[in-house]
Structure to design on (267 residues):
């Protein structure tokens, strides 16, 4: 009988795909890479020969032990039994260094992991990432304003990185095959908070207000969040239609509205 996977794992077995994923990170000869969820090491074994230093975070104790034994003679590879969501990435790398990230993200916590990585990007320790996730989630992450999939996750991701859609894999690329297709995205981290003149915590909270109810207009969502109609009317940018919904707007006009709403009142 086949071993039943733990933690919802679906292991990549497509040889061309695993090489393409590593290639998407570019030249790694002088780079440190953090791999999320290495599993049986399909991607790990390729990375081990290409990057200067590899840190593989594996939550499954049995798999972590398997990988530790397998790479015991390769000092550039460090296997860490850890939960990515409970790991402070600062503690894994020397002060002043940046890292790249690669991984097949578990479907049920993809958004949580992305938010964890975005926090590290704001701290300046991440350069780029190549991440595989459920196709529907990837479509939301990479969606442009005005399309159906654009929402809070899209806006948050694109405040932190340039997102490129690379390729999609069928269930047959994994063992056992999942019930969904998987898409690989590449992110070049470049947080835009300073460029757009907004503070990260405040603008993040503002985006949550703007996208609170997808069917409501932006004004209705902001009124529900506590902004009065008079306050909104006084600062509403001319280039945002009065009945606009948040998903129709790029980040620049959203930032303009946020700055207007949070500007000190002149006396």
């Amino acid at each position: 009988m086949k071993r039943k996977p733990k933690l919802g794992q679906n292991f990549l077995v497509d040889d061309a795909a695993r090489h393409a994923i590593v290639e998407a990170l570019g030249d790694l000869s002088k780079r440190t890479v953090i791999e999320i969820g290495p599993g049986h090491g399909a991607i790990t074994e390729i990375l081990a020969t290409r990057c200067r230093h590899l840190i593989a975070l594996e939550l499954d104790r049995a798999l972590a032990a398997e990988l530790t034994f397998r790479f015991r003679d390769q000092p550039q590879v460090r296997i860490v039994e850890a939960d990515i969501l409970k790991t402070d990435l600062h503690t894994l790398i020397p002060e002043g260094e940046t890292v790249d990230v690669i991984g097949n993200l578990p479907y049920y916590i993809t958004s949580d992991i992305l938010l964890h990585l975005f926090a590290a990007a704001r701290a300046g320790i991440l350069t780029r990432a190549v991440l595989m996730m459920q196709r529907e989630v990837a479509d939301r992450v990479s969606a442009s304003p005005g399309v159906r999939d654009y929402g809070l996750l899209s806006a948050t991701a694109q405040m932190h990185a340039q997102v490129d859609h690379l390729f999609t894999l069928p269930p047959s690329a994994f063992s056992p095959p999942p019930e969904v297709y998987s898409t690989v995205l590449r992110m070049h981290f470049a947080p835009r908070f300073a460029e757009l003149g907004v503070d990260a915590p405040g603008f993040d909270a503002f985006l949550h207000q703007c996208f609170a109810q997808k069917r409501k207009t932006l004004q209705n969502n902001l009124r529900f969040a506590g902004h009065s109609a008079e306050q909104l009317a006084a600062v509403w940018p001319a280039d945002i239609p009065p009945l606009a919904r948040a998903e129709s707007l790029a980040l620049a006009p959203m930032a303009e509205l946020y700055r207007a709403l949070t500007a000190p009142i002149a006396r």
